[in-house]
Amino acid sequence: MHEFLRQANPTGWSEYQLRMYGWCLDVARGRGTATLADIRSFLPTFLSAFNCKISSSKDFVHEQSNEVPAPAAIPPGALARNVRTCEGVNVEVATVHSVKGETHTATLYMETFYERGGGGNYESERLADQLKGQAISIKAHDLVRQSAKMVYVGFSRPTHLLCFAVHQSRFAKFEAGINLDVWEVVRL
């Protein structure tokens, strides 16, 4: 299945990977009800990649109740492994997928390597023009669009402070066009 999706539908493969990773994290964090609802809503799209439709599983997919039992096997404190306390403030280290729909006081968005192509392998490479205030092109590569969606989710979480961590070698390529009235550049 993975090989088929990777070759026949690279965009679908990327979306499947991102969703699966996010679902696993959400279930581990006790968000089973929302995860089940999201899986059910994604199934028709997923099956369409195989030219299939929902038939035998229609009762499950269209079930109104998304009640799932809380995972009792997770020991207390096990989910806190990604929380660090600094000067009395708890800081959660999480993925963009796990914070979708949440609001935070501050967010540090650390760019990541994500597939080759689309004008670069990192958000800062793919979205350099957008970081300088330009609108995304209608003809933008699919990976540019995916990166833009991911960055939008991450950048729209904080109410007070947004930090975007970019390696200096990549930042140097588009630094000249950065609007310093919008961005404050801090080198670490």
Q: Top keywords for this entry?
A:
two-stranded antiparallel sheet; 188 residues; 40% helix
Order of helices and strands: HHHHEEEHHHEH
- Please tally the β strands and state the result: 4
Largest sheet: 2 strands, antiparallel
Radius of gyration: 19 Å
Give the integer mean of the pLDDT values: 81
Q: Which regions contain 5 or more consecutive residues with pLDDT less than 50?
A: none
Class by alpha and beta content: alpha+beta
Description:
The chain is of the alpha+beta class and 188 residues long. Helix content is 40%, strand content 12%. The chain is built from eight helices and four strands; from the N terminus they run H-H-H-H-E-E-E-H-H-H-E-H. The protein has a two-stranded antiparallel sheet with strand order 1-2. Helix 1 packs across helix 2. The longest helix has 19 residues. The model has no long low-confidence stretch (mean pLDDT 81).
At a glance:
The protein has 188 residues and is of the alpha+beta class. It contains 8 helices and 4 strands, in the order H-H-H-H-E-E-E-H-H-H-E-H. The strands form 2 sheets. Strands 1-2 form a two-stranded antiparallel sheet.
